[in-house]
Amino acid sequence: MKTIKLSILLLVVSISTSFAQSLPQLVKYDFKFDWFAAHTVNQNINVGTESVHGIGWCRLFVKNKTTGNEDQIQPTGFKYIGNYGRVFEVPRNSGMKVSNGNIKSLMNTKVRFQFEPAKYGYKTLKELEDNAYFKIVYELKVYKPVNDEIVGKQEAIVFLKDAKVPPVTLEQVKRTNNIPTRPGYMRFNKAKYNLGIVYSIVPVN
Fold this sequence. Notes:
Elements: H1 2-21, E1 27-40, E2 50-63, E3 70-73, E4 75-76, E5 86-90, E6 96-98, E7 102-105, E8 111-115, H2 125-129, E9 132-142, E10 149-159, H3 170-174, E11 185-190, E12 193-204
Antiparallel strand pairs: 1-7, 1-8, 1-12, 2-3, 2-5, 2-6, 2-9, 4-8, 9-10, 11-12
């Protein structure tokens, strides 16, 4: 009798573990470039403004267990701007006018990524989280009459296991002037410039 009870208990634990690790039929994430932070654009806070422009890219890749290739997941309900996964742009001729301490809101809409893990050979969340990632890139330039000054181009790889980056408030962005690059934040330092790009990645149930 004890053996039967133990067997039933083990079966229940096994089923519970299986459900805990199983994947939903559809995995969804929302991505957005939220804020641009001009911590420092001039050494003297009383100096005028700078015109900043740039381009942001975001792509999601999943390793296909059947083919061994990395497949790119296309956004749902959103069309890339041109090629290579561009999702946002501040054009050169309409750059953001900023001075020291200014914070600017960037994208108005989120970019939805969704896919069916089973189509790529996955059965557990743990396995998927180690084999799918976001590639996020942002390039910042400051307008100059002849040749623009490139402040920098940052790239971040965020695996799904780390892709829980909630959006932050304006007050929180103001406190990012001394933090390093990390998931959700890209820091651009060059000469007199200390700039930041804040993004979010939110799993959707």
